[in-house]
Amino acid sequence: MNIKVKDIAAKSGVSIATVSRYLNKSGYVKQETRELIKNAIQEIKEQDKTYVREKNIAVVFPDLSNMFFTDVLKGLTEEAEKLNYNVFSFDSGESIEKEMKIIDALNDFNICGLIITTTIKNRETTKQHIQKLNSLGVPVILLDRDLIFCDFDGVFIDNQKGAFDGVDTLITSGHKEIAVITGPLEYETAQHRLEGYKQAHKINGLEINEEYIYEGDFHVDSGYKFTKEIIKNNKDVTAIFICNNMMTLGAINALNEMNIKIGQDISLLGFDDLEFFTYLGLNISVVSRPTSEMGKMAFEVLSKKLIDEEPCATQNIVLKPSIVIRGSEKLKGNNKK
């Protein structure tokens, strides 16, 4: 049996929104109201002696074929298993419709918490979607992508700082004509990385050429397509900053097809690392996010929510990325180190 928020609300005579705040330990709930909700939950449990809240955690990510998410999941799972939690992962395929269906289905799972990278764009969401998340009656932890109009805890990355540092590295290496392949600019993560690209130009006194900005979709094909367009249409470009690992793979494929040598004929710097870059001898310099740490931190925030009986302040953790230098950022003929 998985106790439904609406059942607790009906039993206690309290609104669904207030019950959700109490269950998620977010926001203020009067002591008198908390007692009503506690008593209602106890009554419902007593009515069904088979009720057990299992140590099951649901994880919903938008693309489990992307090694960023699989690495985060690995770190999260390793931490959860230390405390005997089970982790069930779901792939929403970057589809809000599929994400909504998964959340609906989770009502039939006996989960104690949810960690999610939502597909909602621009931090804007409908009241219906937040109500769906709250209706699960368990703590919800956001990962990588934030939402507004809600009190969910989260673990995030400073995307703008990471992109700034990456592009600044290219400029320090001697590049002045730098193209960028962004993610879909509906996403705040993509917007922040583009802002970092622009900020690095401004601080270094370089003009921003709008013709050098290409909007990708975080998938391999767009990295492939726009790299070919950059090479064809922008003869002055000496470096490309690519805003995620999957598009970097596409860029590598395109350059190989064109017999263009990375680090010699063109320079690359990507956002997010992939282990097989080094396994295959691809010395790609990257902005690296601490994926395993993100997963571990997300579980730690969730487990604290599950252990603490009293509501606690919303916790948003922002981790810093780092630059991994492997040589692909160098400008041909530049001896600068």
TrEMBL record:
Q: Which residues form a coiled coil?
A: none
MF annotations from Gene Ontology: DNA-binding transcription factor activity; transcription cis-regulatory region binding
Instruction: Note whether Repeat occurs among the keywords.
Output: no
UniProt-listed InterPro entries:
HTH_LacI, Lambda_DNA-bd_dom_sf, Peripla_BP/Lac1_sug-bd_dom, Peripla_BP_I
- Organism of origin is Romboutsia lituseburensis DSM 797
Provide this UniProt record's keywords sorted from A to Z.
DNA-binding, Repressor, Transcription, Transcription regulation
Name this polypeptide is given: Transcriptional regulator, LacI family
Q: Which domain of life is it from?
A: Bacteria
Q: Which residues form the HTH lacI-type domain?
A: 3-43
